[in-house]
Design goal:
The complex is a heterodimer of chains A (115) and B (176). Chain A is mainly alpha-helical and 115 residues long. Helices cover 26% and strands 3% of the residues of chain A. Chain B has a single domain (22-175), classed as Peroxisomal Thiolase, Chain A, domain 1. Chain B has 9 helices and 5 strands. Chain B is globular and about 45 Å long. The chains are: A mainly alpha (115), B alpha/beta (176). Strand 2 (112-113) of chain A pairs parallel with strand 1 of chain B.
Chain lengths: 115, 176
Amino acid sequence: MGPRYPYLSQVMSGIMRWLYPGGTSIKAGRSQPNPAPTTTRYAHRSRTCPSVLSEDDRADHSHRQVGVAARLPSSPDNPNDLDYRAFWDFLIQKGQARGKMPAERLQGISYVVIR
Amino acid sequence: MRCIRDVLPTDVGTFLKDVTSFDNVEFGITSKDTLSMSSSTRSSIEMSFLALLDSGIDSRRQRVGTFCAGTNVGGSDTVSRYRLLPCWETDECYQDHLDNRGHASGAYTMANRVAFALDLNGPSFFLDTACSSTLTATHLAIRSIEAGDCDAAVITGCQHNLKCAHRTRPEFKFLG
């Protein structure tokens, strides 16, 4: 059995429980999904991570619904940012994403690096 | 005497790819508006869209609050100090931006832009409390929901350090 991927939503729910141990009176909005993305840029991310709620849970408005999206930088040799699963694997494998600062960010300044 | 900005604490880091790119057609935003938006605002719109999609709630034209935290780098006062976006690299483009900019580059518009692009009708609120911005935004959003101002809330936190100058501001250097 492979590693169990934590949903980012669960992380956010944990933060909410830490912030408000007594709970809040937050109720979710309506349970209809938003329309799907129309262009290709977001098509592969139509659901960024699996929901912690079943369809039955969604119909029950007493549940809190949390959605999370994030941009996660990757190493310089990777042309794309990390998606959520790749980020989890990256953490488990103790990956390294550091790289030299891109030249355009240093454009126009003279500098000395002190470590 | 050496200028303090000449000293960098490091020359390595982890960087987002294509950080300034944005699909304005997806959100019905004009190219001109997009050019004058900071990349932080663009990312906030994208990430808010994806987070709402992830949550599965019906947000269009609903009472969904927008609480955007962070520094709207490229907008507001920073625009005159740094030419941050690639489209402003040439003098002509930068001058055109200064002459014709709309409200898309103001720091205060960060949350407004997200709410407008995604049809969110709740309160729209930008704040910057430095390192605690997103947590403060989360707190305000929860209190806003509890007070009945909105049914749900989008909370974003975004700061892009596009140029080295952002990392080495003198005031932060003095803090160590």
